[in-house]
Amino acid sequence: MAFDFDLFVIGAGSGGVRAARIASSHGARVAVAEEYRVGGTCVIRGCVPKKLLVYGSHFAEDLADAKRFGWNTKGATFDWPTLRDNVASEVDRLEGLYGQTLGNAKVEIFRQRAVIAGPNLIRLADGTEVSAANILIATGAWPSIPDIPGAEYGITSNEVFHLDKLPKRAVIAGAGYIANEFAGIFNELGVEVTLVTRGDKMLRSYDQEIVDKLVGISREKGIDIRFNFKCPAIRKQTDGSLLVESGDGSDVEADVVLFAIGRIPKTMNLGLEAVGVELDKDGAVIVDEYNRTNVSGIYAVGDVTNRVQLTPVAIREGHAFADTVFGNNPRTIDYGAIPTAVFSNPPIAGVGMTEEEARAQLSDVRVYKSDFRAMKNVLADRNERALYKMIVDGATDKVVGLHLIGPDSAEILQAAAIAVKAGLTKQAFDDTVALHPSMAEELVLMK
Ligand SMILES: Cc1cc2nc3c(=O)[nH]c(=O)nc-3n(C[C@H](O)[C@H](O)[C@H](O)COP(=O)(O)OP(=O)(O)OC[C@H]3O[C@@H](n4cnc5c(N)ncnc54)[C@H](O)[C@@H]3O)c2cc1C
Ligand SMILES: NC(=O)c1ccc[n+]([C@@H]2O[C@H](COP(=O)([O-])OP(=O)(O)OC[C@H]3O[C@@H](n4cnc5c(N)ncnc54)[C@H](O)[C@@H]3O)[C@@H](O)[C@H]2O)c1
Fold it and tell me: What's the start-to-end Cα distance of the chain, in Å?
């Protein structure tokens, strides 16, 4: 039977764009549907605009520190609309480039919502139906909203990049990546930030000693962090401000409430039930290591599968899918030792086992630490220390984990992660001559 396309991709985000482009390079006739903006979450309302806001907000500290380095920064002011609009323009530019890349790769783009109408059938929002031999679900995830009275007064990361003006006070609910990143951004921009979380921990997948350091530094910078804050309701007050209830009388007033409590796979009303694609209890598409669903010819990659919600992972999954199905090169992804970072202020970065994980899994664990003040912070008279931890398997001398908090830790960790991924030993780190003066040299000087 002749189909309109060899592959129809639903969602032009990190995973979908890569899969479409590579499948086309293998000779497949490919189409992609995008209901919002080409580029997906990372480019349009995730990694990219977030990182630019991190850069933009950090000038507050840099300008304050500049005085100790001889600069007179008197009169420096900040204008939110300038930063917001410049970031938005950069996002527009990237969106254009993504569209161009797909066009150059001869991928047909349908700029509308698509749903699955049958095993090989896609229905677009305008009613058009197209057929495809294979369908890739790459619809990503969507911010979770708590089921509490007054939740409608809150915003999510979808809206936060477009605020008309900066709030005076913000409550951020959640204790993961987005919560800590926006706590840092808002705090630097002069917003009074209260970060509330229902549990007694945050950033659970990170080394907790590193996280404790972040909590300490964040509080030092003026971020009010409240653990065990249940948030049963949010009320709008007569002056228009919001009252975030705590359940124990320690309510917090805010002008903006940002929910950052996780992202749920975007599988609602996609037609998956009709064709029998199996979902897990969180609504994620269940796939095997080759990104195959239980229905022949239907695949899924990226956040919608809820494996690891990170852009580089979605991209790799999309690429492996295209090579497997259209490139005659079946391959899977290695999920071991994925480096990750939280772009908080200061940032956290980690790869491999945390100390907690190593102690639970290995019989002999050695932990090396360096707790130091970055040279720049010393001259700036900023009493903010960095902490680097190296986790070593005592039985093999292999470095099984690296965990950093401090300036530029994400930049430093990406390079060091190669050594952890390669299974290098503590001895190999010791054998490497330090690059002085740098913060990264601490990695080869740990005693
Ligand atoms: C604020 C924020 C910051 C982040 N920062 C980082 C970071 O620093 N580093 C990192 O690695 N990751 C980060 N992430 C996560 C990263 O953005 C995601 O892991 C990544 O975008 C997942 O790619 P994807 O292809 O699975 O989905 P997405 O990029 O979300 O793409 C899915 C696309 O599908 C479209 N779509 C959905 N349903 C349909 C439909 N029915 N029809 C047509 N189109 C549809 C959507 O509009 C979207 O464009 C961040 C996320 C957020 C929210
Ligand atoms: N730097 C990065 O790589 C980066 C940045 C942003 C987002 N992301 C990705 O996007 C995903 C989503 O980010 P996120 O920050 O929304 O989620 P997250 O999974 O990092 O954190 C969610 C937090 O919310 C808490 N929580 C859950 N339900 C709650 C509720 N009802 N009330 C209060 N708290 C609740 C959880 O305990 C958790 O601490 C991340 O898991 C990550 O994979 C990555």
Answer: 67
